[in-house]
Structure prediction request, 340 residues.
Amino acid sequence: MSGHVAPKSMYYAVFAALIIGTALTVAVAFVDLGALNNVVMLGIAITKATLVVLYFMHVRWSSRLTWVVAASGFFWLLILFGLTMQDYFTRGWVPGTFR
Amino acid sequence: MSDAPSAYQPPPVALHPAGHGHTPHHPYLQHHFDSMAQQAEASTLGMWVFLVTEIMFFGGLFMAYLVYRWQSPTGFQEASHHLNIYWGAANTAILIVSSLTMALAVRAAQTSQPVRTQVTWLAWTMVLGAAFLGIKAIEYADKFKDHIVPGPHFVWHGLYPKPAEQFYSLYFAMTGLHALHMVIGLGIMTVITIMAARKTFDSEYYTPVEVAGLYWHFVDIVWIFLFPLLYLIGRHFHPGA
Prediction:
């Protein structure tokens, strides 16, 4: 029994990408891009999370079944966000008026 | 599948005396599995199922954050502006380094490295996890000093006191649940480090390190989302705008 052994250099490369992503997201936070700030910040966070899942958590080399289970977690999360927000969005509330 | 005695001498943790109709096998292979590979696959899959429930557990808090932030986006920005981005960024970096040392601990076990190498990587992971919690404690103390802990003594000098209180309720709930996971993670790592020191893991059997690693990386991923959503949304906010 032996799972896929990735070279050490791969772990260091993923680590470097994660640190660069963190530096980038902090730098962008100081610039006012309006709503685009959220897009950039979440884009970087999702990229970082994907790198951790695929390489540090070895999903890239795991069985199809593990893939499906891991993906289902995020899929269900989208159902939670999507269905809940479509309720709030259609209530006719005006966001930003609450103090 | 012979019952004849074999030359194989089971280590002290042997599961069965000879004569149960099975060939000698690795001492850590449980009898309801066919092979070490199948056993590892089942454990990993089981851990992923647990992590999916964890995603939904934290998901509820992210959902609450989404609803309340949608209700008062500017109020959340004003509240977030008060958080210290440098402590937050430092903690993000610390957790990423700890994920690297964790991954290297798994790799050390996977490649049958000496016990000293395995234990060193695990120890570094724990030191970094403790450093994260130390910084979190400093931040929490600052919140108490500044009276921005939700409750009767909450004081907010900005334009949006109510959304600020909601933001800090979510801040403490989300980072608190995350910190609890870190504390549990340190407990798990203590057990894994002791197992590693007792020469439990090699390329044939390293599932406990692998599964503990999955948990550790998951907690890292939660922070990867908490950091921007809590610390970064208010950075470009100009008070009074």
Observations:
- The radius of gyration of chain B is 24 Å.
- The CA atoms of residues 185 and 204 of chain B lie 24 Å apart.
- Chain B touches chain A through 65 residues (CB under 8 Å).
